[in-house]
Design goal:
Elements lengths: L6 E3 L8 E3 L6 H9 L4 H7 L5 H19 L3 H4 L6
Antiparallel strand pairs: 1-2
Length: 83
């Protein structure tokens, strides 16, 4: 899915976090609602400005980010432990 017209990143909005169509709703917000057990329908009922396509775009964006992270060399993804 091409989410580029739905997910936007603006430096002055929500500290540059990825948002949905320039609103103040972030991708993280939607993913956290889904992770907490909310259904698409419950999210759409609570946030009528969102669409089912917006939710799909959030999932596609997160999947691409995870794919990119998984493709980084191991030393770039290793957790740095304090001494």
């Amino acid at each position: 899915m091409d989410y580029s017209k739905i997910i936007t990143i603006e430096p002055g909005k929500r500290s540059g976090k990825p948002t949905i169509r320039g609103t103040r709703m972030t991708v993280t917000d939607v993913l956290e609602y889904l992770a907490s057990g909310m259904t698409d329908e419950e999210i759409l009922a609570d946030f009528p400005d969102l669409t089912k396509e917006d939710i799909k775009a959030c999932l596609a964006f997160a999947a691409e980010r995870a794919r990119k992270l998984a493709s980084l060399p191991e030393h770039e993804t290793a957790v740095q432990r304090p001494l």
